[in-house]
């Protein structure tokens, strides 16, 4: 009987907790963010709502091999994405400054799009990408002009070399309007 009572109490306590970001799904409102970009600007998701779709590509750590491959794909083939009316970012929990920061990483790979830094890890937590090791999972969120999540790609790791092509293809599938 005590075990049943304890189970009920635990279930009620869990039900009272806010939804974990890992529970984010298509159709949910994307968590707002306000993150510093490598372009020197503060980027807020709310600034794009009603104006443009957003792609937020989380990555684990600047200057690591997989992240370098993904960044190069987006840098070298970003024109495919720019055909759409969308703003796209890579984001990590790395600092913006420093030898291993996102500014240095973006410069090293000629990124012509902003990389966002979330050193407090609050936004990573809100999106459910923060791992127990303190890095972000490599997940990409496609957010519609209305601020809702249209698609979550959790299998980016297996297609790093074609990240830009995959993003462009997904934007087409989601019927993202072309840039005018």
Sum this structure up briefly.
This protein is 31% helix and 18% strand. The protein is of the alpha/beta class. The termini are far apart.
List keywords for this structure.
180 residues, alpha/beta, Glutaredoxin, 7-stranded mixed beta sheet, 5 helices, 31% helix, disordered N terminus
CATH topology: Glutaredoxin
User: Which strand-content bin applies to the residues?
Assistant: 15-25%
Number of strands: 7
Largest sheet: 7 strands, mixed
Which structural class fits the helix and strand makeup? alpha/beta
Can you give a write-up of this model?
It is a single chain. This protein has 180 residues and is of the alpha/beta class. The chain is built from 5 helices and 7 strands. It has helices spanning 2-16, 65-81, 102-108, 122-127, 163-173; strands at 34-37, 42-44, 53-58, 86-92, 115-117, 140-143, 149-153. A 7-stranded mixed β-sheet has the order 2-1-5-4-3-6-7, covered by helices on one side. It is globular.
């Amino acid at each position: 009987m005590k075990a049943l009572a304890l189970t009920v109490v635990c279930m009620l306590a869990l039900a009272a907790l806010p939804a974990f970001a890992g529970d984010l799904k298509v159709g949910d409102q994307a968590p707002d963010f306000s993150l510093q970009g490598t372009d020197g600007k503060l980027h807020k998701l709310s600034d794009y709502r009603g104006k443009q779709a957003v792609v937020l590509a989380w990555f684990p750590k600047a200057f690591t091999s997989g992240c370098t491959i993904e960044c190069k794909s987006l840098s070298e083939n970003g024109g495919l994405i720019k055909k759409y009316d969308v703003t796209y970012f890579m984001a990590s929990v790395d600092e913006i400054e420093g030898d291993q920061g996102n500014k240095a990483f973006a410069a090293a790979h000629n990124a012509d799009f902003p990389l966002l830094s979330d050193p407090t890890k609050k936004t990573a937590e809100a999106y459910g990408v923060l791992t127990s090791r303190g890095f972000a999972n490599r997940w990409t969120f496609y957010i519609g002009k209305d601020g809702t999540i249209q698609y979550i790609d959790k299998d980016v790791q297996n297609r790093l070399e074609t990240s830009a092509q995959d993003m462009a293809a997904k934007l087409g599938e989601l019927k993202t309007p072309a840039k005018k």
